[in-house]
């Protein structure tokens, strides 16, 4: 805005000029400091929320640097159906709850996974071992957190000999 002098004919006082306010095109009114403060707080909150949502890091199997889990079992009364054969452990950098599972396959039917809550799951023998039919079982284990879907998970190979 700027002040534009009025002509003397419009002025009621001789010799003095009155000014009227005129708004120039394209100029917006000044923003108050309070408005700018609220706007900056909203931007900070929005940025924080976006970074929290976008920064989900995937969980990991805790396997002490090994590339796969290899388990050797003997056919014996100690390895009957229902026997606990392994405890899975996982880690999530975001501290989300973990869910362990397995990809469906012919070999995966030999085990049953029971999530115990937290960062662990138990693997039980679900079928009797018969070395005359099959010597080894290759199973793909899965691990997901609450931010991943059923088709978005971390995998780990599990070999049962």
Notable characteristics:
161 residues, alpha+beta, Immunoglobulin-like, 4-stranded antiparallel sheet, 4-stranded mixed sheet, 14% helix
Please tell me about this protein's structure:
- Helix content is about 15%, strand content about 35%.
- It has about 160 residues and is α+β, with helices and mostly antiparallel strands.
- It has a domain at about 60-160: Sandwich (Immunoglobulin-like), CATH 2.60.40.60.
- The strands form 3 sheets. The protein has a 4-stranded antiparallel sheet with strand order 3-5-8-7, with no helix packed on it. The chain has a 4-stranded mixed sheet with strand order 4-10-9-6, with no helix packed on it.
- The chain is rod-shaped.
- The model has no long low-confidence stretch (mean pLDDT about 80).
Short account of what is shown:
This protein is α+β, with helices and mostly antiparallel strands. It has a domain at 60-160: Cadherins (Immunoglobulin-like).
Distance N to C terminus: 84 Å
The major sheet is characterized as: 4 strands, antiparallel
| Portion in helices | 10-25%
Task: Provide the residue-averaged pLDDT.
Answer: 81
The first-level CATH class of the domain at 60-160 is given as Mainly Beta
Query: How many β strands by DSSP?
Result: 10
> Which structural category fits the helices and strands?
alpha+beta
CATH architecture group name of the domain at 60-160: Sandwich
Which residues form runs of ≥5 with pLDDT under 50? Answer: none
Strand order of the largest sheet: 3-5-8-7
CATH topology of the domain at 60-160: Immunoglobulin-like
CATH superfamily of the domain at 60-160: Cadherins
**Order of SSEs, N→C?**
EEHEEEEEEEE
Region (Disordered): 1-32
GO molecular function, one term: calcium ion binding
Biased composition (Polar residues): 1-15
Transmembrane segments: 35-54
């Amino acid at each position: 805005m700027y002040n534009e002098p009025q002509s003397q004919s419009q002025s009621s006082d001789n010799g003095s000029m009155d000014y009227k306010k005129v708004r120039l095109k394209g100029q917006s009114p000044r923003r108050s400091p309070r408005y700018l403060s609220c706007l900056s707080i909203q931007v900070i909150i929005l940025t924080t929320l976006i970074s929290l949502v976008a920064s989900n890091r995937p969980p990991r199997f805790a396997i002490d640097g090994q590339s796969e889990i290899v388990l050797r079992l003997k056919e014996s009364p100690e390895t009957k159906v229902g026997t606990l054969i392994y405890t899975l452990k996982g880690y999530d950098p975001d501290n989300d709850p973990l869910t362990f599972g397995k990809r469906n396959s012919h070999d995966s039917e030999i085990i049953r996974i029971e999530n115990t809550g937290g960062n662990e799951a138990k693997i039980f023998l679900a079928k009797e071992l018969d070395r005359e039919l099959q010597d080894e079982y290759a199973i793909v284990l899965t691990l997901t957190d609450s931010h991943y879907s059923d088709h978005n998970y971390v995998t780990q190979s599990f070999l049962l000999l």
